[in-house]
Amino acid sequence: MDPKTIPIRAANARTPAFEYFSTKKDELVGWARKFSLFPYPFVTACCAMEFMAVSSSPYDTDRFGAALPRFSPRQSDLLMVVGTITHKQAPVLLRVYEQMCEPKWVMAFGACATSGGFYQNYAAVAGIDKIIPVDIYVPGCPPRPETVIDAIMKLQDRIARSHHPIITDTF
Amino acid sequence: MTAPTLDLLRQRLGSAAGDATFAGGTFVLVIDPAALPGVVTQLKTEFGFDLLLDVTAVDWPGQAPRFEVVYHFYSTSHFGRARIKTRVPEAGPVVDSLTSLYGSAHFMERECHEMYGIDFRGNKDLRPILLYEGFVGHPLRKDYPKTQEQPLVPYRTEGA
Questions:
Q1: Domain range for residue B68?
Q2: Residue B154 has pLDDT above 90, yes or no
Q3: With an 8 Å Cβ cutoff, is A130 touching chain B?
Q4: Contact A41, A80 (CB under 8 A)
Q5: Does residue B65 fall inside a structural domain?
Q6: Which residue in A45, A133, B24, B85 is a FRET match for B72, CA 20 to 30 A apart?
Q7: What is the CATH classification number for the domain harbouring B46?
């Protein structure tokens, strides 16, 4: 047989491989969920430039299934808070978070969203975790693209390993 | 419109010109708050300073009068710049509004009002513009505590 030729099976031929596989329900749901993160970019400040860089071709978060931004919180499950949040804006952020359906995750992108950064004054919220729960923090002012990709992968890892409440006795 | 000189300014404005100097390419007039509307009207009509660039204030704690309201003007005809400084006391930080002369004064006076607590007599709309309703105090005054926050959303408690 010509070594370059790939044997093609008949359409209905039954082969023993991949007829079934065994897994845990949690792992199956986690595997599906971790590759379908729809981010909602809540972009307020200069970190936006870095967010654009990391989501476009050179770094390409699409590789992780986390590329398609949904500009409606109701259709998204990863809230990326990119930039400084002011006290005036905090009610808006909380409202966006509350509109998102479960399951949902929150990424604090950059120093300002994480801790307020170098702002300590009347205007800035010292970290969005004072308002909404945060799943993963990305340090840096702004973060390097590698840091963001690392954060996405870590979050995916956590999603894959976590227990998913939709799994019940009947599912 | 010819570019004004220091002599011309002093001559036309008279004693209202106050302490007029020329520094860094800008005419600097330190005047009395009562003279403000007249001087600005003259600057606009006679000297062609037709653009109000900025209204801000400086807080000098411990000095009297405490606040210095600063205006910047520009001329689109002879490209000159002018700065007017006027001192107002802490007890009654009131100056006349320039909204009748310059439309841009509306927003800039609102900002100066919320940040420094300067009252602009004649500006009908001094609502907060950058801050929010309910904010207590004037954050750019030197005696506003650096770390004092006034959150609109209650903070999460630990472990919630």
A1: 6-121
A2: no
A3: yes
A4: yes
A5: yes
A6: A45
A7: 3.30.460.80
Q: How many angstroms separate the CA of residue B155 from the nearest CA in chain A?
A: 5
Rounded to the nearest integer, the mean pLDDT of chain B is 88
Separation between Cα atoms, residue B67 and residue B141, nearest integer Å: 9
Question: Could you say which of B130, B139, B152 has the minimum Cβ distance to residue A90?
Answer: B152
Nearest Cα residue to A103 out of A21, A41, A27, A162: A162
Of residues A13, A10, A12, A31, the one with CA closest to residue A21: A31
* Tokens standing for residue B80: 């000159």
Residues of A numbered 37-96 whose beta carbons fall under 8 angstroms of chain B's beta carbons: which are they? 87-88, 90-91, 94
Residue B135 covered by a domain: no
ipTM of the complex: 0.79
User: What domains can be seen in chain A, in order of their start residue?
Assistant: 38-161 (3.40.50.12280)
Nearest-CB residue to A122 (from B148, B152, B156) = B148
| Residue A133: band (very low, low, confident or very high) from pLDDT cuts 50, 70, 90 | very high
